[in-house]
């Protein structure tokens, strides 16, 4: 079974199709990678160089005399006093982490409940890039530029944490898209989850984790490849002149900021836009309530929190440890800009190769992501231990030789190449979906409580002892704690908890939708068709609406003369003509006003799918030899008339529930008969070359769809084709949807249809219906109609049709939801207005298959 998408089609909510053009966080990583690398590396490098050559001094020497001696500590100004240069960098990191965590507490708490998450991310990336722009103008080694870089470096770190928190949220959306069940009804999702116990659940987890690793590793690779390219250019520039050799890093920092901004603007349209979560409380309290709920969640999602805290401790300590080793590298080796850049390139290349190898190796070994994380922690533990060895003057190793720095640059980078991608994959599997910003932001918020500790503890230690390696002891302790917490974490249990919660929530939704009671199918031999008995279901339906609410109703054929005025006991329908009052779930009229709407709807579908016939083989058949074509549920005959006009050789037939529905052509060249697809169409087996049926979503109950498709197959010739067209039923938007639209998607027409026993997800299920009926060469084409009257002819048709449909169904929807018809119209029209503002759209499915 294949699926094709029209070029004009847009997708939202990270459905399966969205993975066809996978937006990678790597795209975002590629744009921020050069800025991230240049900003962190060259801003700190310039602070150190300015200290060495201008504003610093050795202990006992006058201020601003520089630090020319490799073996002596370097002290630099900080406010009205001076501190050890290594302590300064540790303090700046502590400030960045602390302020970043505090700001993230507020912003990330609001983020999941705000619209335009994509736009917020782009805005932060632009700010991130803009902070790099001044670098090229601060090349002179003086006190003002020294403080300028201190401010830029600190603010750059704070904004960077927000960018990371936003960028991470897209990975779990893509993981869900790898094995999606979100477009199904609550009962269908519940059924799907019930089927993935044991080995099936392991397969689902493996599939999602592998997809998540692809995205996460893609981001890592994109970031580091961009870093390598920019660093190589930096080395090249350094060969131009002496001035270029000294300032190449700053020039490339400014360039990377410009590239970051440009790429952010270009990549904007390609990012998914996750929908916001409704919130009606006080927004100023939200950060505190979210933070409190996340802490309370420690008892509920213990494994997620253990894994998170371990990662946060290691990540923050590694940042401090890397600052120490970088400072040791500068003090021990005193590298040129070329070697300093090459040293960092070695780490980036290791990260690229290590992450790619890890991604390909992971599925071939029975090692879980948690166990891989423990291996990564072991590497950084060994690195910190090695650095501690150098504290003794009697030991000749311990980051005292150039080669050691490069070896451990590779080891630490390899640990990060494994740990960072897997964290972004495993962590979201252990917390509730839809809270990505909060939980990923929580990692950064924890920096308020953890990151400053190694920085602030190490700063005074180095400042008082002038021993550059002492911070490695603190880092080693924290690395060991991270390893212990990860060993304690039970990832299997953590994922199982989320699975159980999802099942429980879906059970509640299914009960609301009316699917919770067990459906028991019984075949009535006399009637020769399937009836459905649903215990306790009718108790959920208003007793005053028996004709359209009965779950046991099967639409019975009626003669043409039996079309009647109004639906029984449904006020507001008296002025319209309907098919029957005989317990049918079909709630649309059968009169001239409705035929006009159907004609407009037909024009919309013709524009969306470029004509009446979607299958190329069928078009070839009708063009060359003709063939017998049948339109089931033809209504006024719009589709079959277009087929006759487009393919004059075709022998055209039409059938409908009510005879006076069909309006003959002037040439009278289409044969019409009354027929009901559920009780048997008046045609022999294997009669038609091409059978078409569309828009039965509101006419068939869930259990009747297989019956109807089976009847279509019966009358189709071997080698013939069946085409079905149905709506998806949901309003979507790449910019996210409002709570009102989400409520309409859940209740509205879809929820009312569920209450009447229908299947609102018939559109996405068409291909499965055809496949289950035994058809071959099944394809599903999905096209999007803008819910926006300003979006051309298709948008105009869509809005006009939807408004008309709401007005027509208002009396029925009012019975479903206990409100007045006028309130339904106001509700529905308000949703349309919001959809137009958000550039919303509605998907339609055309599925076709061939009878073997």
From TrEMBL:
GO biological process entries: amino acid transmembrane export from vacuole; autophagy
Keyword rRNA processing: no
Limits of the Methyltransferase domain: 629-720
Extent of the signal sequence: none
Region ranges (Disordered): 1-26
Biased composition range(s): Basic and acidic residues: 8-21
Record field: transmembrane: 88-109, 121-144, 150-171, 215-242, 248-271, 283-298, 341-362, 374-393, 405-427, 439-458, 470-488
Location relative to the cell: Vacuole membrane
Highest taxon in the source lineage: Eukaryota
Keywords: Amino-acid transport, Autophagy, Membrane, Transmembrane, Transmembrane helix, Transport, Vacuole
GO cellular component, one term: vacuolar membrane
Record's bilayer topology term: Multi-pass membrane protein
Pfam families: ATG22, Methyltransf_25
Family matches, as PANTHER family: AUTOPHAGY-RELATED PROTEIN 22
Its biological purpose: Vacuolar effluxer which mediate the efflux of amino acids resulting from autophagic degradation. The release of autophagic amino acids allows the maintenance of protein synthesis and viability during nitrogen starvation.
Family, similarity comment: Belongs to the ATG22 family.
Protein name: Autophagy-related protein
The organism of origin for this protein: Vanrija pseudolonga
Taxonomic classification: Eukaryota, Fungi, Dikarya, Basidiomycota, Agaricomycotina
């Amino acid at each position: 079974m294949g699926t094709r998408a029209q070029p004009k089609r847009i997708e939202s909510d990270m459905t399966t199709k969205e993975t066809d053009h996978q937006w990678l966080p790597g795209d975002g990583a590629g744009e921020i990678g050069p800025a991230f690398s240049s900003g962190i590396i060259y801003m700190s490098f310039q602070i150190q160089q300015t200290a060495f050559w201008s504003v610093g001094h050795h202990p006992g020497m006058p201020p601003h005399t520089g630090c020319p001696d490799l073996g002596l500590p370097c002290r630099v100004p900080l406010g009205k006093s001076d501190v050890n240069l290594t302590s300064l960098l540790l303090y700046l990191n502590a400030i960045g982490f602390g302020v970043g965590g505090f700001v993230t507490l507020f912003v990330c708490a609001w983020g999941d409940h705000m619209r335009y998450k994509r736009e917020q991310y782009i805005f932060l990336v632009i700010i991130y890039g803009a902070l790099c722009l001044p670098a090229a103008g601060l090349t002179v080694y003086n006190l003002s530029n020294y403080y300028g870089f201190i401010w830029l470096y600190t603010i750059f770190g704070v904004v960077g944490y927000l960018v990371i928190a936003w960028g991470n949220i897209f990975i779990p959306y893509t993981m869900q898209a790898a094995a999606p069940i979100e477009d199904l009804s609550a009962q269908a999702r519940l059924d799907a989850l019930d089927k993935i116990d044991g080995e099936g659940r392991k397969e689902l987890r493996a599939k999602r984790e592998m997809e998540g690793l692809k995205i996460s590793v893609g981001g890592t690779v994109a970031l580091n490849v961009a870093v390598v390219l920019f660093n190589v250019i930096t080395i090249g520039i350094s060969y131009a002149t002496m001035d270029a050799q000294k300032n190449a890093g700053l020039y490339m920092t400014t360039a990377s900021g410009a590239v970051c901004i440009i790429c952010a603007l270009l990549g904007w349209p390609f990012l998914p836009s996750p929908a916001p979560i409704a919130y009606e409380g006080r927004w100023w309290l939200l950060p505190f309530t979210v933070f409190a709920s996340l802490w309370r969640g420690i008892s509920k999602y213990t494994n997620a929190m253990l894994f998170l805290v371990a990662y946060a401790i290691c990540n923050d300590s590694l940042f401090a440890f890397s600052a120490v080793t970088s400072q040791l590298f500068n003090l021990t080796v005193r590298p040129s800009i070329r070697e300093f850049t090459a040293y960092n390139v070695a780490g980036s290349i290791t990260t690229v190769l290590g992450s790619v190898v890890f991604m390909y190796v992971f599925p071939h070994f029975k090692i879980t992501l948690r166990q891989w994380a423990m291996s990564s922690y072991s590497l950084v533990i060994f690195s910190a231990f090695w650095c501690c060895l150098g504290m003794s003057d009697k030991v000749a190793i311990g980051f005292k030789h150039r080669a050691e720095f490069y070896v451990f640059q590779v080891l630490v980078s390899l640990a990060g190449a494994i740990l960072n991608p897997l964290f972004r994959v495993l962590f979201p599997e252990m917390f509730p979906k839809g809270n990505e910003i909060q939980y990923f932001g929580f990692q950064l918020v924890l920096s308020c409580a953890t990151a400053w500790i190694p920085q602030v503890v190490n700063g005074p230690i180095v400042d008082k002892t002038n021993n550059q390696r002492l911070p490695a002891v603190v880092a080693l302790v924290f690395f060991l704690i991270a390893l212990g917490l990860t060993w304690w974490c039970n990832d299997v249990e953590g994922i199982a908890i989320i699975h159980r919660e999802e099942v429980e929530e879906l059970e509640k939704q299914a009960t609301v939708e009316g699917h919770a009671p067990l459906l028991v199918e019984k075949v009535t031999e006399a009637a020769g068709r399937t009836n459905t008995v649903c215990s306790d279901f009718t108790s959920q339906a208003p007793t005053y609406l028996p004709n359209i609410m009965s779950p046991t109703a099967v639409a019975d054929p009626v003669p043409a003369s039996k079309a009647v005025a109004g639906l029984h006991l449904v006020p507001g329908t008296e002025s319209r003509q309907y098919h029957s009052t005989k317990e049918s779930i079909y709630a649309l009229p059968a009169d001239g006003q409705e035929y006009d709407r159907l004609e407009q709807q037909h024009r919309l579908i013709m524009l969306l799918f470029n004509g009446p016939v979607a299958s190329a083989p069928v078009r070839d058949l009708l063009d060359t030899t003709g063939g017998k074509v049948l339109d089931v549920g033809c209504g006024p005959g719009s589709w079959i008339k277009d087929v006759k006009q487009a393919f004059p050789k075709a022998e055209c037939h039409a059938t409908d529930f009510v005879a006076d529905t069909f309006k003959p052509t002037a040439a009278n060249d289409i044969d019409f008969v009354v027929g009901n697809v559920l009780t048997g169409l008046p045609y022999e087996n294997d009669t038609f070359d091409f059978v078409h049926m569309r828009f039965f979503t509101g006419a068939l109950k869930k259990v009747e769809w297989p019956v109807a498709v089976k009847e279509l197959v019966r009358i189709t010739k071997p080698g013939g084709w069946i085409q079905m067209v149905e709506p998806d039923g949901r309003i979507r938007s790449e910019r996210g949807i409002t709570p009102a639209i989400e409520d309409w998607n859940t209740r509205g027409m879809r929820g009312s249809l569920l209450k009447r026993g229908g299947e609102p997800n018939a559109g996405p299920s068409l291909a499965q219906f055809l496949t289950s009926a035994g058809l071959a060469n099944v394809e599903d084409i999905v096209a999007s109609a803008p819910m926006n009257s300003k979006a051309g002819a298709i948008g105009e048709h869509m809005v006009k049709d939807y408004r008309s449909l709401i007005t027509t169904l208002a009396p029925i929807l009012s019975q479903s939801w206990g409100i007045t018809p006028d309130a339904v119209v106001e509700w529905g029209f308000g949703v349309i207005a919001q959809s137009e503002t958000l550039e919303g759209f509605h998907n339609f499915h055309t599925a076709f298959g061939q009878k073997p």
